[in-house]
Design goal:
The protein has 311 residues and is an alpha/beta fold. It is built from twelve helices and eight strands. It has an eight-stranded parallel barrel with strand order 1-2-3-4-5-6-7-8, surrounded by seven helices. Helix 4 links the parallel strand 1 (59-64) and strand 2 (97-100). It starts with a helix and ends with a helix. Bound molecules: flavin-adenine dinucleotide (FAD). Flavin-adenine dinucleotide is lined by residues 1, 135-136, 163, 165, 188-192, 227-230, 254-256, 259-260, 277, 291, 294-295, 298. Flavin-adenine dinucleotide (FAD) binds at residues 1, 135-136, 163, 165, 188-192, 227-230, 254-256, 259-260, 277, 291, 294-295, 298.
Length: 311
Amino acid sequence: MNSGSKALFYALSRSSSLKRLASKYGMSSTDSFARRFIAGETIDEAIQAARVLQTRGLLITLDYLGESVRTIEEAAAATREYGRLIDVIVSSGIERNISLKLTQLGVDVDRATCVDNLRRILDPAQRHGFFVRIDMENSPYTQVTLDVFETLWQQEYRNLGVALQSCLYRTEKDVRRMNELGARVRLVKGAYKEPGAVAHQKKKDVDAAFLDLTRLLLDEGTYPAIATHDEALLGAIRGYAEQRGIPNDRFEFQMLYGIRRDLQSSLMRTGHPMRIYVPFGRQWFPYFMRRLGERPANVAFVVRGILRERS
Ligand SMILES: Cc1cc2nc3c(=O)[nH]c(=O)nc-3n(C[C@H](O)[C@H](O)[C@H](O)COP(=O)(O)OP(=O)(O)OC[C@H]3O[C@@H](n4cnc5c(N)ncnc54)[C@H](O)[C@@H]3O)c2cc1C
């Protein structure tokens, strides 16, 4: 992770011509380049990908891609799509676990509408025994995301958890609050370029904070999800859990679809619950660009894919 490349890829993710080019080639056939990170554009493709992962012994969470909607109608459409996703997951028999973003449900347009939309998802989700995770977006949304989370938590929606980012200075306080509530946290490093006023700028500081916060979650939290592909950190975390006598079933690891599949399988084989975040949908471009920004070496793989498809 490099903060310069995150900024560059963020800027590129706003380019409409790049988006057109990527959209044309990225998912057009079964081996197109974006398919490494995105399970497909339809619910059926996502269910199929989830089944394959489950057959390998992995847990899953499905994410219907979309963010930054600008109108109430778009937010309502995303909410309906999540409702449909819940129905399809129930009838397919795969694990009942979904992830979503508040800017997809209209938090930028009207916060009360966003809360209503989330409730429209949580009601059927709760009835059918789903767990719902709110992803964390960039820092202008941290407080509102946690406020919306707490509003619903206080209304007894307990099938709900949130993601927190180790890059932000404020996160220790947020972890302590979630631990106090007994809420389930997914800890991540943070995928967005953040200013120095609110976030660590050096990778080593983000990593050190990740380890400290994981310890706090393992010691005092409720079934935390430790979401990283960082092998050194994962080794240190496993060592800590072992030393403290924390059993494997008290927490889970999480990784992204298509990233470090070797490590996903090897950790699972050592008896650790391992959940894969499976994104799908037509709005895959910003998610895809964040994955490129985390590892610029991925660009070579994309360029090879485009050249192959054009020839
Ligand atoms: C399940 C899950 C949910 C997430 N949810 C959120 C969220 O809600 N909000 C948020 O801000 N971020 C989220 N993220 C992203 C996260 O913040 C990081 O940007 C991302 O996980 C990369 O950081 P890392 O911990 O893997 O460590 P890094 O130090 O970035 O990477 C460690 C190693 O992992 C591998 N790797 C990492 N990224 C890639 C990649 N893109 N392509 C290929 N290899 C790679 C490489 O081998 C690298 O050396 C999520 C991540 C996961 C795993």
